[in-house]
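Narrative summary of target 7.
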Amino acid sequence: MRLTSMSFALAVTALWTLPLLGQAATWPQWRGPSGTGATEGRPPIEWSIDDGRNIHWKRELPGRGHSSPIVWEDRIYLTAAVAVGPKLPPKMSGRPGAHDNLPVDRQYRFNVLAIDRETGEISWEKTVHQAVPVEGGRYTASLASASPVTDGERIYAHFGSFGVYCLDRDGATVWSKQLGMMHTKHGHGEGSSPVLFKQTLLVNWDHEEQSFLVALDTATGEERWRRDRDEVTSWSTPLVVTVEGRPQVVVCGTDRVRGYDLKNGEVIWECGGLSANIVATPVSADGILYVGSSYEKRALMAIRLQGSQGDISDSEQVLWTRMRGTPYVPSPLLYRGALYYLTHYQNILTRIEAESGVDQPGAMRLGPLGNIYASPVAANGHVYITDLDGVTLVLSSTEVPRLIAVNPLGEPVSASAAIVGKQMFIRGEKHLFCLQESD
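Modeled conformation, tokenized:
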């Protein structure tokens, strides 16, 4: 099935509990309040950079970053790496297999920003660290790729080799933690986002040396526990799920996807079958976990969490598998019983019934879009997919999706969007956009 600009009218062939203000008032973490990429709310389905239609405001951002914005009530938080000082003699990381990387030729400030949700004004900008990086990362990445997370009182930002930071709502540093220096595969850079569950902050530290998962106390930054991982570099963000009242931390890796006891870090279950170079973050609902990868091989699995103990590879706990068109960079979207995922990072979207893995209607080519790094999001019966050129395609979430709109934004986009109430926030290469229906 092919969706092109000529066929607009054709059919397109467990977690942290939020306060009573409701999910629609927050987007507190990477992939939204439920970790699925979906939320309540009624964002616009059309906008225009040419005449400003439904663009509530546009704010120029300092530096560079691919982290997604997060939102709590009247504030938006994001991170950026800002080059400062004179240019230095360019130096490559020298990591084994390095290719398509940027040289290290500047010192950087690692900044956290708070932006007023209504006006787009920068409320504060805090430099938490300043250094010359060891790795410049791949040309498609940035030094601020991990999205922050908030509980409304504090903001937690993770800059990998340059520390984990806890700030209060006024931008004051509550605590900071240095976890060491990352050595990423091919020197391509860092990107896994931190995850918050009540009084525990979780950081996945998969790299080419000793990998580990660490749980930090949100009040002090002290380690609650640390578990070594027999893994190499991944960029996937952990997911917290609750199984029979017991919170688990799910982390995808090249060797295994594992469920860890959130209380002590002990492995509860593990399952093989993914590829190398794990990027996509898993999603979960109704007791089923969905994990996928695509590199030297393709894999997508649905895992029943209840009853999973020990090594469940090839067991009945794996409800179904798919070996074609699986996700690499963009993470899957789970919305209204359907699982949406992109082939590798190409403009081919697959929609299946999540529980059964059956095509509904299966794969479709998104003709108006090019390659895609941003993960799809959904609200109010619509699915939003933004490509690297900043073009957002809007589809209905019906069993046979219909094309609703194609919206160019005018600048490249790698970060995933956030939806809160009537607003959608998209971070471009240079600006943060607030999209909202004009009165």
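The chain has no helices and 35 strands.
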